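User: Sequence recovery, please. Input:
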């Protein structure tokens, strides 16, 4: 198999690609550039292109197909950035991967704790030497009812982590897990929205899930509810969230992902005007914590992402079944 890698990060991914391409006998090359119409030709002569979160549209897929590319591998769990149905219609494979769920689960619980203890506000006040207590009182996690929407690998790991805090947990997923039932009670979305102090999202970005948290849903939530999103930005209607924060309905938001983050996250935009005014508004609130889509970013997860993209692409190219082929 011949593999061409886009968006290579030499400061973390490169050693893993060198290790695993040698281990699995893969001929490869790379560029630090993100794929675009001006550099698709770089992949000529290769079988598989390996990407991350860049939007891959029909025009780009047509070009790669004409160059002989047989498979698109994304080093991400999500694959909504690829027009995968069109790629498959041309006979091309589309592969995604899995990685350590503890990475995102740890980040999720961290955001919950920071929200409970108003850490962002405390740090902002301390930076100007305001060491008073007024307005900084927190709450204890074990006193909270936590709603987990999506109980796949990451949601399940969050639930296991939260058992150590002793909080009551309600869960929702269209596919229920017996393992989850040991720790949490499956229930309806309506009940989660109405009863939970903290709601954390671990659902995929599907058409059905678009803006699953909108103004109507937020209006049903408890006053001062905490919302955590380490899944996909499109799950939350950003304007509805902003309105909920300003009205006091949402007491804290922890956001590792936001709408329209493509072209911003993973790039250095220092000193540039950003074409995302809603992000600027959210960043201005002392009760909103934003991280730039880094919940996944641990040494183990990066190693998993690189190795699994190679393994899954190799499986496809050699005709083996893989659960990570997008169908």
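Assistant: Recovered sequence (327 residues):
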């Amino acid at each position: 198999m011949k593999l061409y890698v886009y968006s290579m990060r030499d400061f973390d991914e490169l050693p893993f690609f060198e290790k695993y391409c040698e281990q699995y006998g893969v001929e490869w090359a790379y560029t630090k550039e993100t794929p675009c119409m001006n550099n698709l030709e770089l992949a000529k002569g290769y079988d598989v292109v390996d990407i991350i979160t860049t939007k891959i549209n029909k025009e780009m897929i047509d070009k790669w197909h004409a160059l002989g590319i047989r498979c698109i591998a994304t080093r991400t769990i999500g694959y909504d950035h690829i027009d995968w149905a069109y790629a498959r219609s041309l006979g091309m494979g589309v592969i995604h991967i899995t990685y350590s769920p503890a990475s995102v689960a740890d980040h999720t619980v961290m955001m919950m704790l920071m929200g409970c203890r108003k850490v962002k506000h405390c740090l902002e006040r301390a930076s100007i030497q305001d060491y008073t207590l007024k307005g900084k009182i927190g709450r204890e996690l074990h006193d909270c009812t936590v709603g987990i929407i999506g109980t796949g690998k990451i949601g399940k790991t969050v639930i296991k982590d939260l058992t150590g805090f002793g909080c009551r947990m309600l869960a929702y997923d269209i596919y229920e897990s017996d393992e989850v039932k040991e720790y949490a009670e499956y229930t309806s979305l309506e009940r989660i929205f109405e009863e939970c102090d903290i709601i954390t999202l671990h659902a995929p970005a599907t058409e059905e899930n678009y803006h699953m948290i909108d103004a109507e849903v937020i209006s049903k939530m408890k006053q001062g509810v905490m919302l955590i999103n380490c899944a996909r930005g499109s799950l939350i209607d950003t304007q509805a969230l902003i309105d909920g924060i300003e009205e006091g309905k949402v007491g804290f938001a922890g956001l590792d992902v936001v709408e329209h983050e493509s072209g911003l996250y993973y790039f250095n935009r220092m000193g540039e005007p950003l074409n995302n005014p809603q992000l600027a508004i959210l960043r201005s609130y002392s009760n909103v914590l934003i991280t730039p889509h880094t919940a996944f970013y641990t040494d183990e997860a990066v190693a998993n992402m690189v190795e699994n993209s190679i393994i899954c692409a190799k499986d496809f190219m050699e005709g083996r079944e893989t659960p990570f082929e997008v169908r």
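The first strand starts at residue 2 and ends at 5.
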